[in-house]
Amino acid sequence: MSYIDGFVAAVPTANREAYLEHATLMAGIMKEFGAIRSVECWGDDVPDGKLTSFPMAVKAEPGETVVFAWLVWPSKAVRDSGWARMMQDPRMQPGANPMPFDGKRLIYGGFEMALDL
Fold first, then answer.
1. pTM of the model
2. CATH assignment of the domain containing 49
3. Is residue 117 part of a domain?
């Protein structure tokens, strides 16, 4: 069954186009390395919570928008190989493809798909 990498980030709203350019480049690289789908979602109805919420999780500041994204891989093995290759790729070095958001507040993780209806 497929394997999913999920991401949540706070992106300066003014950097939307720069973020989408960055995400497009990343998606192309990840597809080269085996990803079969890349989805980027720009927050539209993401309420603040009292105990937990997406904005709280990424410490979103005024003027930032929460982004929710995921990559679909055919398997965890392909994902692990893809990430290893990506980390060595010169296009992914910090100066070559700077993130248009604070990467220290990025939340990410790998997920085994449990249900797909």
1. 0.91
2. 3.30.70.100
3. no
